């Protein structure tokens, strides 16, 4: 199992590397131009669905405060398990409460080191080439026909858990479960959709904004699933001044504006 997780983690890092490297390079150039000093690099492990927003924030905090943040993106479950196994991490941005709770149960979250940072919506996406148009979710089994519904694995991917819960509460799961294909993360599920390995995908509203070749077909009612909450946590033993600065920055008005540009909302409740 550890070998599988290590492989998944490496794949996630390699997948994220082009965007992260670009953000870091731009930020380094801007910061160096302003004569800012280089200090400790903060390791931020973040849910795959935050990739574009976090990359923009990495550049912004480097430019404004001279702090270098190195993000790693993967499924929240993969990241949490690697933190528990000792992977380097100062901050963890999860796509649900459960995986932050997993670390809290193991004493791996710093005291007063967690806040509910972001919210999101759950949507149904299709490729632009799909001519089906928008429809009521009650029509999903019929619209799907013999094709596949792709989603994150409900066993461990937050978007998959929300999707499974919503389909169940809408009395649709029994009709579509045999046509469901599971991805290792929400972004992996969308890659499957883009390659034509399904007709529809369950993902976040923010994903519809970053994939030019995908479009939204329907929105799941917020009452059909648990609130989508992204907690931000500081890892126990890594609670230093620089990590706290990044923790506070990600809660700032400036960071909030950037998150909103990518479609994130504020969560319904704060801890």
> H/E order of the elements?
HEHEHEHEEHEHHEHEHEEHH
Q: What fold name stands as the CATH topology of the largest domain?
A: D-Maltodextrin-Binding Protein, domain 2
Helix content: 40-55%
Placed side by side, the strands forming the largest sheet appear as 2-1-3-10-4
The total number of structural domains is 2
Mean pLDDT: 87
Oligomerization category of the chains in this entry = single chain
How far apart are the first and last residues' alpha carbons, in Å? 33 Å
Question: What structural category do the secondary elements indicate?
Answer: alpha/beta
Unreliable residue stretches:
1-37
Give an overview in words.
This protein has 271 residues and is of the alpha/beta class. It has 2 domains: 2-119 and 228-261, 3-Layer(aba) Sandwich (D-Maltodextrin-Binding Protein, domain 2); 122-224, 3-Layer(aba) Sandwich (D-Maltodextrin-Binding Protein, domain 2). The chain has 11 helices and 10 strands. The strands form 2 sheets. Strands 2-1-3-10-4 form a 5-stranded mixed sheet. Strand 1, helix 2 (51-65) and strand 2 (68-74) form a beta-alpha-beta unit. The longest helix is centred in the first third of the chain and has 32 residues, at 2-33. The chain is elongated and about 55 Å long. The protein starts with a helix and ends in a 10-residue tail after the last helix. Residues 1-37 have low confidence and may be disordered.
């Amino acid at each position: 199992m550890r070998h599988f997780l290590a492989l998944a983690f490496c794949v996630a890092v390699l997948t994220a590397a082009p965007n992260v490297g670009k953000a870091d390079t731009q930020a380094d150039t801007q910061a160096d131009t302003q004569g800012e000093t280089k200090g400790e690099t903060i390791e931020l492990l973040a849910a795959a669905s935050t990739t574009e927003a976090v990359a923009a924030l990495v550049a912004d905090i480097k430019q404004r405060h001279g702090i270098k943040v190195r993000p790693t993106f993967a499924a929240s479950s993969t990241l949490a398990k690697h933190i528990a196994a000792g992977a380097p991490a100062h901050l963890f941005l999860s796509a649900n409460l459960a995986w932050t709770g997993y670390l809290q149960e193991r004493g791996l979250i710093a005291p007063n080191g967690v806040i509910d940072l972001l919210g999101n919506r759950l949507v149904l996406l299709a490729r632009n080439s799909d001519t089906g148009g928008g429809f009521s979710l009650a029509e999903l089994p019929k619209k799907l026909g013999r094709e596949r519904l792709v989603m994150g694995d409900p066993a461990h991917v937050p978007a998959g858990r929300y999707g499974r819960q919503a389909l169940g509460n809408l009395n649709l799961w029994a009709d579509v479960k045999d046509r469901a294909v599971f991805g290792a993360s929400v972004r992996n599920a969308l890659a499957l959709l883009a390659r034509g390995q399904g007709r529809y995908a369950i993902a976040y509203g923010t994903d519809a904004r970053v994939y030019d070749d995908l479009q939204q077909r329907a929105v799941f009612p917020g009452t059909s699933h648990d609130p989508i909450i992204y907690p931000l946590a500081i890892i126990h033993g890594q609670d230093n001044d620089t990590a706290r600065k990044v923790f506070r920055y990600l809660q700032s008005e400036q960071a909030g504006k950037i998150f909103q540009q990518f479609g994130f909302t504020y969560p319904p409740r704060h801890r």
